[in-house]
Amino acid sequence: AGHNADDVAETVLLNILRGDVARLQRCTQVVTGSDGAIPRSKPFKYSYEKEIVMYAHFKKLDYFSTECIYSPHAYRGYAREFLKTLERSSPIAILDLIRGGEKCVGVQSNVRLPTQGKCDRCGYIASQRLCKACVLLDGLHAMREKRKGLVAYETP
């Protein structure tokens, strides 16, 4: 569904685990980037993913959800599994994590967020020299080249 409560809680958890409290403000806001080139809205911030899926099913709406094949083994995949386990013992855990992240924003108001600029390669919004998509593509290309080298080395 994208930008639902489950996604926001994962992002809050990842930012806390990385010690990146500066990004908590951006990930907990309903509207982000209103001062930049592309504002983003999260109207489903407090809606659980399963509620959105059930609504789409009962209203016979087309619902499409795919997960990146690398996601389960990525850092976010472990955070997702942890949250699902936590939610089984405390169903309100996801919303509690979001609200906790929102409260941390007020505490660290003197921390500056990275300035949103443009990716040097593709021009999309980014807080670093390269956007996340370009960084991921670089990683995939490097992995492909590494595999080519291994295959060439292993074949007689």
From TrEMBL:
GO MF annotations in UniProt? transferase activity; tRNA binding
SUPFAM superfamilies assigned = Adenine nucleotide alpha hydrolases-like
Q: Where is the Cytoplasmic tRNA 2-thiolation protein 1 C-terminal domain?
A: 117-142
Kindly list the GO CC terms recorded for this protein.
cytosolic tRNA wobble base thiouridylase complex; mitochondrion
Keywords in UniProt for this one? Transferase
Which BP terms from GO are recorded?
Answer: tRNA wobble position uridine thiolation
Coiled-coil blocks: none
Pfam families under this entry?
Answer: zn-ribbon_14
Q: Which InterPro entries does this entry report, sorted A to Z?
A: CTU1_C, Ncs6/Tuc1/Ctu1, Rossmann-like_a/b/a_fold
Report the domain of life of the source organism.
Eukaryota
Q: What is the name of this protein?
A: Cytoplasmic tRNA 2-thiolation protein 1 C-terminal domain-containing protein
